[in-house]
Amino acid sequence: MEAILMGEVIKVEIDRALAERFRKKAMELYGYKKGAIKRAVEGLVRKFSFGGEADWGSLKGKLDLLEWSSV
Length: 71
Known about the structure:
mainly alpha, disordered C terminus, single chain, 0% strand
């Protein structure tokens, strides 16, 4: 039997100019095809999450956490 990997959806709102610049860089790095943005975001999340000790204090005030839900 084959394992099925489930994904997680994370929705964020960022500055339009920053988003456009990010999309452009992601496509330059991963190619102008489907999945480029996903690969770039996953890479950033991995680097932030597993890159040693995170500086959570630097994020204070930058994240607007509207709702927390438990699984």
